[in-house]
Amino acid sequence: MIEKNRHLLRLADWSEERILETVDIAMRLKKEVHNGQFSDRFHGQTIGMFFEKPSLRTITTFQVGIHQLGGAAVLLAPDSIGLGKRESVHDVATCLSRWVNALVVRCFKQELVEKLAEYGNIPVVNALTDDSHPCQAFAFAQTIKEQVGDFKGNTIAFIGDGNNVANSFLVLCAKLGMNFTLACPKGFEQPTSVIDEMQPFFKQHGTQYRVFNDPKEAVKDADILYSDVWVSMGQEGEKDSKQSHFLPFQINDSLLKLAPAHCKVSHCLPAHRGEEITDSVMDNLKVNLSFEEAENRLHAHKAVLWQLMTPTSELGK
Ligand code: CP
Ligand code: NVA
């Protein structure tokens, strides 16, 4: 049985209070770094990083953040480890649990992060799977708090694929009292299990989950438009067909004009300029918060680890 609170496997496992506390820790750590102060919280501790998929932001900011807090990051090599092929997931997780204080994992299957958490004895952080991207949601939450002020009552319109990033943002909105709107082509909606699990939170906050197949409908009452690539990592074979479905779902100046005047835009990045978002929106830094959010990945990751790290004296127990 996995102790859900000991890991960040899915944002849905964390309470509203814990999410808000983590955002506050991230904001404090950001302020400290900007003032030239560095905590020694991770002194003597080591975090393993296992990335099966490419990354710029996540792989860099975890390493920089761990370094800023006095710890060390070890990049593990998926090809060399051969998880589940050269050695069982169980044995790899058991060995790693005797060496490192936490494990940050980017992989295809959500099941793999869950198994590493189940078989090991150290916190596991989901750094993106095909199903979810909770770390991105933390950086987005911090950006909203900094740029908009409050969470409650905001409407986030996600224009794109109903997969990993959208799933974690749906959860973030449900838990923090925001409305979540998805605009996607038919057939690219979010799994009903994710929506159903979050309906009680929307009900509790009096907020709404909506889906439109027309992006123009989705942006009308939005406070923030969000964008993600049309073709996610691992889906390269579906590129042509996905691009043809998603063509009308581009965030461009015409779409932005249909949104309220105060509406901002963000993107998890990498952005495929000219596809899901235009240069004109990306380069409009009065509107585009993507780079603020990218900066916040650094502090969000430190805050997540701050909440989770296992003391070295408990490794292997
Ligand atoms: N947004 C995000 O996770 O970026 P990377 O894939 O570069 O890590
Ligand atoms: N949906 C994208 C997110 C990248 C951060 C992907 O999975 O490739």
UniProtKB/TrEMBL annotation:
Top-level division of the source organism's lineage: Bacteria
Entry's Gene Ontology molecular function annotations: amino acid binding; ornithine carbamoyltransferase activity
Protein name: Ornithine carbamoyltransferase
Stretches of the chain forming a coiled coil according to its record: none
Aspartate/ornithine carbamoyltransferase Asp/Orn-binding domain mapped to chain residues: 152-307
UniProt keyword list: Transferase
Gene Ontology biological-process entries: citrulline biosynthetic process; L-arginine biosynthetic process via ornithine
Enzyme class per UniProt: transferase
Annotated EC: 2.1.3.3
Sequence similarity: Belongs to the aspartate/ornithine carbamoyltransferase superfamily. OTCase family.
PANTHER family, alphabetized: ORNITHINE CARBAMOYLTRANSFERASE, MITOCHONDRIAL, ORNITHINE TRANSCARBAMYLASE, MITOCHONDRIAL
SUPFAM superfamilies, alphabetized: Aspartate/ornithine carbamoyltransferase
Catalytic activity as recorded in UniProt: carbamoyl phosphate + L-ornithine = L-citrulline + phosphate + H(+)
Chain ranges of the Aspartate/ornithine carbamoyltransferase carbamoyl-P binding domain: 6-146
